[in-house]
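Hi, here's the filled form for the chain we discussed.

Project: internal
Contact: R.S.
Residues: 256
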Amino acid sequence: MQDILYGVGGGFVAAAATAAGAIPALIGRSMTQRTADTMLGFAAGVMLSASYFSLILPGIDVAETMFGSLWIAAMVAAVGIALGAGFVAWLNAVLPHEHFLTGREGGDAAALARIWLFVLAITIHNFPEGLSIGVAFGADRANGLSVMTGISLQDIPEGLAVAVALVGQGYTRRRAFLVTMATGLVEPVGALLGATAVSVSSALLPWGLTFAAGAMLYIISHEILPETHRNGHQNRATAGLIFGLILMMFLDVTLG
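And the returned structure, exactly as it came back:
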């Protein structure tokens, strides 16, 4: 139960970071597209590093201990990653949502207000982050702390980028802030599910860790990187990605 509470608490910390990042948009600060792309690149780097150092490698270690075979552990990781990516791909195909630049995806969106399309898009993005925090705390509190810290750090610029983008789409600053804050609340939900699953059965731990990694890897490739490379700022976005990856790696090594 303590691991579950820690996981949910970590999810709320990440949600609070998302809301904190949106505050400048609420008080009127603007952000250039170049800065937004750099920040999103940073977010991708943090998620990429967390996927590998905090989720995939610990998942392989746990599976090897459980099964006594590195080959089986690698297969478990491969299947877990594929399942996580496939799950988010399914959500992406079924739920109607709207990207900032590429428009609508998913099912029939005719009956949904435009703002809810954005909400669903951001929710699909944030859920794997919360899931990763919960699974990490379920595995080890030190590992959970590093994942929570890294994801919370990248949620701050990410929250600002989302809020500014919503303002750019014509929403009021107050509504953009509230929408961004609301979408962050899916992270404690994901954290609850992840922490509960691995706490109920230790056999689920390697699957949970690698599933969360696969979900995040899909988001990085399908959602974040394409957005950062469409406006001619790919060099800055790549620099942000490298910096985010290094920072998260450092946090994982020192805190985990």
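Let me know if anything looks off before we file it.
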